[in-house]
């Protein structure tokens, strides 16, 4: 993935450029059709992946609402970001003694009936403190873990009652882990999507960090809807045998384009501050992907966690959309992203 140092841009949406941060950069904004994807719901305001967070995202006008999906012991797809329950529920209080030897409580060790006994909390860190200071307090409020089926019914209900359709953006979390546990996450999710009436032309992007699973969805499971390959860093160990450094190259992107419709890189793979001089540089990733017809939906845009090269959330969003030319962004604050985009 090459970095290109080019001239400062005034209004253009050309990638491969360098743009000064600060007020000059903010002046380049133009309304755009880039998708605003509510990352785990409006998770900047309400505990992630609760129906309350999804309601807020829908009300704010998010184009798509994200679901991270894992399976319960009895094979039911539920909405959770982690394969473990520790960071976002009170599992250690309710099911003391059910942790694995590594000290963690795995969702797949609990039946749906058991998972439903848990309260969802604002995300915590390893010390049990709030991961994002200033967000919703880390207290129980009776919020519970939704199943995928419940969440899809909830979103469709809001689509009907408001007259505005929000799409869905489910992510298969750790499919290889599920397979090792004797469960087929992809098959279970496809079944729920079909039962909920989400056909091939419905507003759905199905995503995964596991390229092997993306290939399997297309070639073996016959999925004909839109697929997005998430791109992380190799050091994260997201999926066995998947090399993100290679997937980001033109050859890797070609492999992705053979089976998928888009990529979901980190925003730092699109915009970097490699020289640590406070100036954002646009990498070649967006141009390389678009040349192959791939949409680019980077993650995660957080108003309360800005990179050094963006003085404000507005500026970060505009750098990604207007300057780098991405097609959509995952954000914890859909309202602020829409505002930054003039919507
Ligand atoms: O799926 C896009 C983005 O959500 C990927 O990161 O870890 O928040 O699922 P994560
Ligand atoms: Ca996700």
Automatic annotation (TrEMBL):
Pfam families: GDPD. SUPFAM superfamilies: PLC-like phosphodiesterases. One of its GO terms (molecular function) is glycerophosphodiester phosphodiesterase activity. Keywords: Glycerol metabolism, Hydrolase, Signal. The keyword Signal applies. GO terms for biological process: glycerol metabolic process; lipid metabolic process. It comes from the Bacteria. This is glycerophosphodiester phosphodiesterase. It comes from Pannonibacter tanglangensis. The gene is glpQ.
